[in-house]
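User: I'm putting together notes for a lab meeting next week and I want to include a structural view of one of the chains we've been expressing. I don't have a solved structure, so I'd like a prediction I can at least talk through. The sequence is below, exactly as it appears in our construct file.
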Amino acid sequence: MSSLVIIDAGGANLGSVRAAFQRLGVEPEVSRDPARIAAADRLVLPGVGAAAPVMANLRALGIDGFLRETRKPLLGICIGMQVLFERSDEGDVQGLGILRGEVRRLPMAEGIRLPHMGWNRLRKCMVSPLLDGITDAAYAYFVHSYGVIDSANTMLETRHGRAFAAAVTHGNVVGAQFHPERSSALGARFLRNFLEWQPT
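Assistant: Thanks for the context. Below is the predicted structure for the 200-residue chain, given as C-alpha cells.
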C-alpha cells in the first residue's frame, strides 16, 4: 500500500481519522513536517472547528502552496474539504482555491438546527470510482454549520434546510463534508476507494 500522510493542521479529528485507516489495514503517518508531507504518495487533510485556524496553520507550515500545486491524491475532510475552495463565509477566510466556489453558512429555518449534526441521506450526482460500492440513498454522518452550495464538482449531495455538497472531486482532489471516519461501513468504503483511486 502506498504511503499515506495525514496532515496535522490542528484538526481535532486526527486520531479518529488515523484509526479509520488503521481499521483498513493501513498505518498512516500524522505529520506537520513539510518534507514528510511532500514525500507522501497520498494526503489527507482533516479538520474540525473553523476554517481560519486551519488556513493559518497551513500557511505557517509553508505547505499551502504545495497543496495547491501537488498532483498527488488529496482528500479533505469536513473543514479540510471547505478550505479546498476559494473562500469561506466563516470569518471571511480565503481558502486554498483548488476548487472554485465559496463556503456559506447553512440557512436557518423552522425545524432546522445548526450545527447540522447527525446522519443524512446521500444522493449521487456523478459516476466515480470513489463511489464504488456506495449505494444511492446511503447515510453518512455530518457535524458542521457551513457548506458548499451549487458546486460543479459535487459528486454526492445531501440536504439540511437546502441541498449542499456532501462530497466533491476534481482532478487529484476529493473532499468529504461528512465524516467518513464516523460513517460506519459507508465511510470505510469511501476511504478504501480513496486509497485505491488513481486520478486521471
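A couple of points you could mention at the meeting. The domain at 4-196 is CATH 3.40.50.880 (Rossmann fold). The helical segments are 14-22, 34-39, 51-61, 64-69, 79-82, 184-196.

User: Perfect, that's what I needed.
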